[in-house]
Amino acid sequence: MKIDYLQALKRIDEARGAWILHGQEPLLEQNLSDAFRQSWITHDFERQRYDINSVSDWKNVFNALNSLSLFSQNLAIEVHGNIKPDASSLKLLKHYIQHNEHNLLLIIMPKQDSASLKSAFFQLVEANGVVVALNASSAQDRQRILAVEANKLGIQLDQEAWLWLEQNHEHNLLAAKNSLMRVADTFPELNQIGIEQLHECLQDQSRYSTFDLSDSILRGNLNQSIKTFQYLVASGEPNSLILWTLSKEMRLLMQLFEQPQNALQLGIWKTKVSQYQQALRRLNPQHFLMWPDLLLRIDASIKGMSQENPEHLIQQCIAEMCGYRLFN
């Protein structure tokens, strides 16, 4: 079946079988992923993660699903990538869905074009599991999603404030959530937030944004990119938001390298296609193989799971995307 993001949030504790999350809204992916992982901890699921870099990697996934450890009765396999299973792996997927009632296969993919959504892989999961599109195509959808985030923070916005938030974040849900957090921290005594509070809190903190960081990186301007990053850090921008911006741009560059004719289908704005093409001509595709590991290191450092400095790693990531290697 197909369900939307808010419906998926309500069904996480009962999720079993096979689920696909696909889209390019980092806030939705982050929230669902965090909710799934918390549910797995609560219900004593063993969690394993696999990154799909080739079709053959799917066999490792199904081998894991069929071989539980001695210490767990329930297993959650989290899969990341944009490579769909081949015919032999589809048979294994079908067998898993039909014969396993306790485990969960959670597949997280970037935005898919219409042809991919009609593929045998998506049709199999849609018929026997759950497919969630991580998107918010209308202003009403975005407001419903952000209203949930505002409720978590104990605040409500009047309609004029919602309109201002929507217009000033260009449909960027993650940036809008960050602004809601700032407003809640700035006015802890207020439950109802109006446009005056939004103006007071946000109008002077937007000299540089994550959009500016993306633009300078695509142009290969390392000095400006580092300057923008340092401003974002000084102004309180969370490292997690910066990481999402970098990971999105890395993913788009790698996808465009593999699918040079599908820029619009990948979600790249028409006015920015030439910037991505110029960036690809500047970059060494062999370095793409190291990017996922670098992103994982940044994520671990932000969460305090490693001793590495997240800001140093982020600057290394920025340099890589600008075409400079800090370390061999």
From TrEMBL:
Keyword hit for Metal-binding: no
GO cellular component terms attached to this protein's record: DNA polymerase III complex
Enzyme superclass (EC): transferase
Domain of life: Bacteria
GO biological process, one term: DNA-templated DNA replication
GO MF terms held by the record: DNA binding; DNA-directed DNA polymerase activity
Keywords: DNA replication, DNA-directed DNA polymerase, Nucleotidyltransferase, Transferase
Catalytic activity: DNA(n) + a 2'-deoxyribonucleoside 5'-triphosphate = DNA(n+1) + diphosphate
InterPro entries: DNA_pol3_clamp-load_cplx_C (IPR008921), DNA_pol3_delta-like_C (IPR048466), DNA_pol3_delta_N (IPR010372), DNA_polIII_delta (IPR005790), P-loop_NTPase (IPR027417)
Domain DNA polymerase III delta N-terminal, residue spans: 20-132
PANTHER family registered for this protein in UniProt: DNA POLYMERASE III SUBUNIT DELTA
Protein name as catalogued: DNA polymerase III subunit delta
